[in-house]
Design goal:
The protein is α/β, with parallel strands linked by helices. The chain has helices spanning 7-19, 32-37, 49-57, 91-96, 103-114, 141-158, 167-175, 181-184, 202-207, 212-229, and strands spanning 75-76, 82-86, 123-127, 162-166, 189-191, 194-199. It has a six-stranded mixed β-sheet, sandwiched between helices. α1 (7-19) crosses α10 (212-229). The longest helix is centred in the middle third of the chain and has 18 residues, at 141-158. The radius of gyration is 17 Å and the shape is globular. It binds uracil (URA) and iron/sulfur cluster.
C-alpha cells in the first residue's frame, strides 16, 4: 500500500466541505436512521460496556453462534472519534476474537496509517455481525437484524464523530439502502445524526488493487470531513 501523498486533493475537498456542504450531503432515507436510533425496550439499549461485552460473549440469538469459535465484539478506544465498521469476522478473527487481524486487517492498518490514524488510538473497529458467517458468506438479513442492537449500543456508547462503513454490507446495513458502493462513495451520509462515509472493504481491495487509489480518496475525504467537524 503505497500512498502518493497529494495534499492538494485533500485541501480541495476541505474547501468544498466548507463552502458548499449541502452539495455533499446525501438525504437520509425516511425512517431508517430514526428507527435505528430509537429504543423499543430492548435491554441492550441500557447496557454499559461491561454488560454489553458479556451479552455478546454469551449470545445465541442467531444461528451463527453454532459455528463460531469466538465472538468478535470490537476493539479500540471506547471514546473514539473514528468508528470503522466492517462486515463480520473471518477465519482469523474467529480464532482470535478480535476484528481485522487477518490479511484484510493488515491492509486496514495501512489505510489508517495513510490518514495518520492508529488502531486503538482514537479509533474503534467493529463489525455488523459479531460471529463469523461460515465460509465467509455474507451475513443473512435475519443474522444482521439479530445482531444489530449490539452495534447500535456500541455506537451510542462510543458517540464517534464519524463512521466509516467498510464495504457494501456495512454501508447497506448502516444506511438501510442497497445502492451500489460506487454511488455511495464521496458523500456524507448519516447514521442517526452521526456523519458516515463509505469506502471499499480492505478484503475487496486485496482482490482489486487498482481501486486502492479510490479508497485513498475516500479516506482523504473522511479526514477532511473530520477536520471540518472538529472546528
Ligand atoms: N472482514 C471484516 O469485515 N471484518 C473483520 O473483522 C475481518 C475481515
Ligand atoms: Fe448473537 Fe450476533 Fe453472534 Fe448472532 S452474530 S449469535 S446475534 S452475537
Amino acid at each position: 500500500w503505497k500512498i502518493k501523498t497529494d495534499p492538494s486533493h485533500c485541501e480541495s475537498v476541505v474547501k468544498i466541505i466548507e463552502t458548499n456542504p449541502n452539495e455533499l450531503i446525501n438525504t437520509p432515507l425516511k425512517g431508517h436512521a430514526t428507527s435505528i436510533g430509537t429504543s423499543n425496550n430492548n435491554p441492550v439499549d441500557q447496557m454499559n460496556w461491561h454488560q454489553l461485552k458479556l451479552a455478546v460473549s454469551e449470545c445465541i440469538d442467531c444461528p451463527l453462534h453454532q459455528t463460531r469459535k469466538n465472538t468478535v465484539f470490537g476493539v479500540g478506544d471506547e471514546k473514539a472519534d473514528w468508528l470503522f465498521v466492517g462486515e463480520g469476522p473471518g477465519a482469523r478473527e474467529d480464532e482470535i476474537g478480535e476484528p481485522f487481524v487477518g490479511q484484510a486487517g493488515k491492509l486496514l492498518g495501512q489505510m489508517l496509517a495513510a490518514i495518520q490514524l492508529k488502531r486503538n488510538d482514537g479509533v474503534y473497529i467493529a463489525n455488523i455481525v459479531k460471529c463469523r458467517p461460515p465460509n465467509n458468506r455474507n451475513p443473512a438479513s435475519t443474522e444482521v437484524n439479530a445482531c444489530e442492537p449490539y452495534l447500535r449500543r456500541q455506537i451510542k456508547l462510543i458517540a464517534p464523530k464519524l463512521i466509516i462503513a467498510l464495504g457494501k454490507v456495512a454501508a447497506e446495513n448502516l444506511l438501510g439502502r442497497s445502492d451500489s458502493l460506487g454511488s455511495l462513495r464521496g458523500k456524507v451520509h448519516y447514521y442517526s445524526d452521526i456523519p458516515l462515509v463509505v469506502t471499499y472493504h480492505p478484503a475487496y481491495l486485496l482482490r482489486a488493487l487498482p481501486e486502492k487509489a479510490q479508497a485513498w480518496k475516500d479516506l482523504c475525504f473522511a479526514k477532511a470531513l473530520m477536520q471540518s467537524l472538529a472546528k
